[in-house]
Amino acid sequence: MGALERHTSSIPVPRSTARAVMHVAGAVHVEQAIIRAKARIGEFAINEVAYLKAVQRELEHANTDAGDAIALIVNTTISSIARSVAQFGSELD
């Protein structure tokens, strides 16, 4: 009783209009996929950066003399991740 049912339109629709609607629907699906891909890559990058920073803190705590070298490695890696994410986003646009 509460289920939704799909009803067909009783008004005839020209084929060109139906094709145009299908084209728009396809374009919307593509745009949604692009948005989801960018969001997932961004989330992944954020998680990776958080993990790298946590590892950096642990390593710097364990070996204070290597703090500068560890920071350089982690910061270089984070910059590389940021460039990769930016490149991925620009390629999808």
The gross shape turns out to be: rod-shaped
Q: Briefly note the structural class of the backbone.
A: mainly alpha
Helical content (DSSP H or I, runs of 4+)? over 70%
DSSP strand count = 0
Mean of all residue-level pLDDT scores:
90
Largest sheet: none
Strand content: under 5%
The low-confidence runs, each spanning 5 or more residues with pLDDT under 50, are none
Radius of gyration: 24 Å
- Total number of helical segments? 2
Distance between the termini: 45 Å
Instruction: Give the SSE order as H and E letters.
Output: HH
Structure report:
It is built from 2 helices and no strands. With 93 residues, it is mostly helical. It has a domain at 38-93. Helix 1 (15-62) packs antiparallel against helix 2. The longest helix has 48 residues, at 15-62. It is rod-shaped and about 80 Å long.
